[in-house]
Amino acid sequence: MTDISPSEKDIRTFQQKIFQFYKENKRDLPWRKTTDSYKILVSEFMLQQTQVSRVIEYYTRWMNAWPTVKSLAIESYKKVLNAWMGLGYNRRAMYLHNTTKVIVDEFHGDVLTAVKHYEKLPGIGLYTSKAIQIFADNADIATVDTNIRRIFISEFDLDESISDKDLFTLAKQCLPSGKSRDWHNALMDYGALHLTSRKTGIKPKTQQSNFQGSDRQIRGRILRLLLKEDQSAYQLQKELKVESERLSKILNKMVDEKTVGKTNKNYHVPH
DNA sequence: ATCCTGGCTT
DNA sequence: AAGCCTGGAT
Q1: Confidence of residue A205 (pLDDT cuts 50, 70, 90)
Q2: Which of A29, A113, A198, A262 has its CA 20 to 30 A from that of A135?
Q3: Separation in Å, CA A169 to CA A3, A5, A79
Q4: Comparison of pLDDT for A212 and A38, the residue scoring more
Q5: What distance in Å separates the CA atoms of residue A143 and residue A180, rounded to the nearest whole number?
Q6: Which of the four pLDDT bands, split at 50, 70 and 90, describes residue A3?
Q7: Which spans in chain A are helix H?
Q8: How far, CA to CA in Å, does A218 sit from each of A57, A94, A170, A185, A223?
Q9: Closest CA to A47 of A23, A68, A31
Q10: Per CA to C1' distance, which residue is closest to B2?
Q11: Spelled out in words, what is the top-level CATH class assigned to the domain A8-28+140-200?
Q12: How far is CA A240 from the centre of its chain?
């Protein structure tokens, strides 16, 4: 672990630059108009590895359909998945649905208390837990996503191999107390609008494999078919024109994850 | 071809 | 530590 502590003066200059940019370029996003912890929770799930521009319409439709934790928790999984389709990483729909059930059943519907015990909530890791506390409650804690990581590396001229631990130490040093929500929103905007990955050449921490021709693409097509009606592996194979061995491998994995169910020969979207 | 407010499993 | 998970925009 190397000492990467900037001086007090460096930090203050950095903060002023970020806040000045925010003042002039702030994005007007739907989930920034609320501090409802459930709504923040949904937005954070949707935003995991997914661009803001693609989330906006899904978020808006979602809140019209399910405005509270409980309304989502008691909904059928099929309807939840149907509303998610097109956003990508469809496991998140199941995680989100199951997470709201745990929040209602074990935490009396109290999102902010629940996310502090995020090990019990599928789909919520350290980043998302902190992000929800920050954006819903203005909690005086720091979190680092792909945007914020890129800003720190560029701003303080760090090596791209810097550890999460060192990044987090730096993030805490830079956090202006009492302004956590504004600060993190400002950092996100600075990273997404100005200090982009393309512009800086700084690669994201987690690389994604190609989509065309991938198993992921086939999984998405499988779910779309199963949302219409239950189908056998043979019917799916005819529709998708994938080698049967590859298809059954994918189907087995999806059954294993419980993203699809199987009764006798037929596959279906779980209830 | 590469990116996107990560998390889970092995 | 590394592979896997969706789909659209640039």
Answers
A1: confident
A2: A198
A3: 10, 9, 42
A4: A38
A5: 10
A6: low
A7: 8-25, 37-47, 52-65, 69-73, 77-84, 91-107, 111-115, 126-137, 146-155, 164-174, 180-189, 197-200, 215-228, 233-240, 244-257
A8: 24, 18, 41, 35, 9
A9: A31
A10: A198
A11: mainly alpha
A12: 29
Q: How far is the CA of A189 from the C1' of B2 (A)?
A: 20
What is the homologous superfamily of the domain A36-137 according to CATH? Hypothetical protein; domain 2 (1.10.340.30)
Q: How far is the CA of A247 from the C1' of B4 (A)?
A: 28
- Give residue-wise pLDDT tens across range A68-120: 999 999 999 999 999 999 999 999 999 999 999 999 999 999 999 999 999 99
What's the CA A175/C1' C5 distance, rounded, in angstroms? 32
Nucleotides of B under 7 A from a protein CB: 1-8
The tokens describing A211, both together, are 């989509």
Mean pLDDT of A56-65: 96
